[in-house]
Amino acid sequence: MADQGVSPNIITYGTVIKAYCSANRLDQAFAVLEEMQKSTSLHPDEVTYNTLLDGCARYGLFDRGLEVLADMRRAGVPPSNYTLSVIAKLANRSKKPKKAFEMVDTLRKEFGLKLNMHVYNNLIHAATCDSNMMKAQEVFGTMLDERVRPDGRTYTLLLRFCITQKAAVPATALLRTAFGLKHQKEDLVKTGSEDSLHPLLVKALLRSCHWAAAPLRGNSALQEEVIQDTFDFLSRSLDSSGVPKLLADVQKSLPSLKLPKSTTSRIFAKP
């Protein structure tokens, strides 16, 4: 292009930078950025900075990602929700999950951003990486309070985390929410329970949350495998008296759901 007198624009440079980031050639990606800044009158835009941030996040280069963010701020390029999502991903991949909350909250306040589903999902992921059940519930409760609709990934992250943490009460509440089912206060507030719900989440769930049901079809759907694994976990919990009714309610919305015989036998064997 250069030999033929065609001048590359910001999209051209951005595409080359993205290609280097995808190939784990970050040094060359930054070299292209430096060349663009020195040899042309072009300035990096939000897409360019986000591409470099995502490259740093993909390979867990935390300090280098912070440098990109600092350059972005010095250039006066405001971050978007996509930037915040990548920032949370950067902290997660760099094994600094607590930093995800700190950085996202700082940028949210500074630029007046309303977090979207993707940012919330990455914050939930950060809480699970930090093995913090209450924080994961708090983030989900805030998400519902802000009326941001969850997707299949939201529920997958939370339900898988409940299974690994052996948290039956949150798993039951989440499964009911995923299918738009109503909640009873006595089921959400269980005195003395070791896996109790976060107060913010209880408050959100006691409102009508039918709009927060998980999609059951399409790329963002909650997969049946996750539902099956959750019922299998609940069938093994000490208190599974409400599980048969929950299963019946879920199968009304998802008639195709089939559980292994071992799971159903445990569910219906208990009083």
From TrEMBL:
Signal peptide: none annotated. PROSITE patterns: PPR. It comes from the Eukaryota. The keyword Repeat applies. Residues 63-165 form the PROP1-like PPR domain. It holds the Pfam family PPR_2. PPR repeats lie at residues 9-39, 45-79, 116-150. Keywords: Repeat. PANTHER family: OS03G0856100 PROTEIN (PTHR47447), PENTACOTRIPEPTIDE-REPEAT REGION OF PRORP DOMAIN-CONTAINING PROTEIN (PTHR47447:SF21). This is PROP1-like PPR domain-containing protein. It comes from Symbiodinium necroappetens.
